[in-house]
Design brief:
By secondary structure, this protein is of the alpha/beta class. It contains 20 helices and twelve strands. Among the domains are: 4-88, Gyrase A, domain 2; 118-369, Rossmann fold.
Length: 573
């Protein structure tokens, strides 16, 4: 489907080409500066140089020669120095945009750009036997939003939760259980006890080298299929996944696969041999397999005792994804502190001859900090766990709803509080660049004004409230969009028209904040429209019906935008 802004751009290029003065290859358009009253501009510099005429002269000649076809979205053409400026026809734009949104509803903005292509997104990836905390939430939230964005762009997306359930770290878990016993508890309580045992064992390990060797021994036993090690491992995996599933359900996160590192166990010997065969790695003097590529620091592929490391399993993971899913891209949404690891991983895959035509992409992100800028850390004792974070957010949202709308039924209050609280946590991450550190600031996160999920959700709920009142009053809702000529109406319509463009930009930049910014600007434009253009008390029944259509379109588009971010849009607040 070609959306209104795409048609407008195509019509502008066709109109310039139809003059016969400029070759199509030289027709490049740009967005005018904010102070220019136009919607699209053609800078005449390149074409004028080719034609050996001054750019202002060419722009003026083109303005005089252009003929606007009947029914075109082009409303006006003007030369301004070396620029040829085009403005959209407000009535035709209104009719086109409202018709598009009415036809697609919450599916508005979707497009088939990626049809026939597959993208694998690796995200969340909690460690087994550990509770999910704010350190995991960024990967989970950013990853799910990218999955939503690429699916809306027509790609087949494979979301994989790459669980950390293997290796030396898990050897410490097993060794601590062997030393202190298996916790007699369930759920998050059992995992908290496992974490305490892990921390205790790790602390003692610093003073006792034999404990480090014991952890390595358990890691090796697990890889070799020891029945006791496998039984304890399976118990830890089941316990962690059950606890994580509750958090994922609350966040609206859905994975296609949850292949843990253990899944690739059978592939590891062949992968190690392949690194040696292709000379991407070599066997060191101590018997370990190592690699030195692209002037990167030397890294291990296989330990000297035969055990594997993260890199071994990540190499196998890439090979599996290539052969199983045939993707055009594999995207890793992982903490920015792992940047070197991914540079090394991508380098060795290229050296082995894999993924030559596949983009391997690392999307790094910053840490979560307290209001005074302190990173949240288990060691510092200020860590916030995901379940507690979502509970706190929901409780705070409920307090706001009790104050703002006490007449809501208790069950609806609880449902709205969950949507608002969780939405606040999600939006607090996604409205800013992923590379930045983010702060847990409850007042800002739950504000009903300004750049917050609550403000956006409230704007959607206000749209729905207006539409419900219209039904109660028996107002007609099938209006004539060409009546929408007020500057506030046109401004809102133009911004609604930009969602498909914002979606495409968000995908190309791996940037959910582009969608967040579109949502925020939509809410602001709707606020201006709501203040300046009476809806239910419009001057005529015809204008009221047209404005109700615009309110409905705004609700659909806002819900679509919020959905791309993984945020629910309540009907009432």
């Amino acid at each position: 489907m070609e959306y209104a802004l795409e048609r407008f751009t195509a019509e502008v290029k066709a109109a310039i080409a139809a003059t016969g003065r400029v070759a199509p290859a030289l027709i490049e358009t740009t967005t005018p500066k904010p102070n220019i009253p136009a919607d699209l501009a053609f800078p005449a510099f390149r074409a004028a140089k080719e034609l050996r005429v001054p750019p202002p002269q060419l722009a003026a000649e083109l303005a005089a020669a252009i003929s606007i076809p009947e029914g075109s979205l082009i409303g006006k053409v003007e030369a301004a120095g070396p620029f040829l400026n085009f403005s959209m026809h407000p009535q035709r734009l209104a009719a086109a945009v409202l018709a598009e949104i009415a036809a697609r509803a919450e599916g508005y903005g979707r497009q088939p750009d990626g049809a026939g292509q597959t993208i694998v997104v690796d995200y969340s990836a909690p460690n087994i036997a550990k509770r999910m905390h704010v350190g995991h939430i960024r990967s989970t939230i950013i990853g799910q939003s990218l999955v939503n964005i690429f699916r809306a762009l027509g790609y087949t997306v494979v979301g994989d939760n790459h669980l950390g359930d293997w290796g030396k770290q898990f050897g410490v878990v097993l060794a601590s259980i062997a030393m202190y016993g298996r916790p007699d508890a369930v759920g998050e309580e059992a995992m908290a006890l496992l974490e305490a045992q892990y921390a205790r064992y790790s602390g003692e390990m610093k003073e006792r080298p034999d404990l480090d060797e014991e952890a390595r021994r358990w890691s090796l036993l697990l890889e070799q299929g020891d029945p006791q090690a496998r039984a304890l491992w399976q118990w830890c995996v089941d316990l962690t996944l059950q606890a994580a599933e509750k958090n994922y359900n609350r966040l609206g996160v859905r994975f296609d696969h949850a292949y843990g590192e253990s899944f690739y166990e059978g592939m590891l010997p062949d992968m190690i041999a392949e690194t040696l065969r292709t000379e991407a790695a070599y066997r060191d003097e101590d018997g370990s397999v190592v690699a030195e590529l692209d002037k990167l620091p030397k890294f291990i592929i296989q330990r000297k005792d035969g055990g594997t490391v993260y890199m071994t399993r990540d190499i196998a993971t890439v090979e599996f994804r290539l052969s199983e899913f045939h993707p055009s891209q594999i995207i890793y949404v992982v903490d920015g502190r792992q940047e070197l690891h991914f540079r090394q991983l991508f380098a060795i895959m290229r050296a082995m001859g894999y993924a030559r035509d596949v983009e391997l992409v690392h999307i790094p992100f910053g840490v979560v900090t307290t209001l005074d800028g302190q990173p949240l850390s288990t060691k510092k004792g200020n860590m916030v766990y995901l379940e507690s974070l979502l509970d706190e957010a929901t409780a705070r949202a409920l307090a706001v709803i009790d104050l703002k709308n006490p007449d809501l039924a208790e069950a609806e209050k609880a449902a709205v509080a969950e949507s608002v609280g969780v939405g606040a946590v999600v939006y607090n991450d996604l409205y800013q660049d992923t590379k930045r550190n983010i702060t847990l600031d409850w007042e800002r996160m739950l504000a009903t004004e300004g750049n917050s999920a609550t403000y956006l959700q409230y704007s959607h709920a206000r749209c729905r409230s207006i539409l419900r009142r219209a039904v109660e009053e028996g107002a007609a809702t099938a209006g004539d969009a060409t009546l929408l000529t007020h500057p506030a109406e046109t401004g809102l319509i133009k911004h609604l028209a930009r969602l498909p463009e914002a979606l495409r930009e968000a995908g190309s930049r791996y940037a959910p904040f582009v969608i967040a910014d579109w949502c925020y600007t939509t809410a602001r434009e709707f606020g201006v429209f709501f203040e300046q253009c009476p809806v239910l008390k419009a001057e005529s029944a015809e204008l009221r019906a047209a404005r109700l259509d615009l309110v409905a379109a705004t609700a659909h588009a806002l819900k679509a935008g919020l959905g791309l971010l993984g945020i629910r849009a309540p009907e009432r607040m």
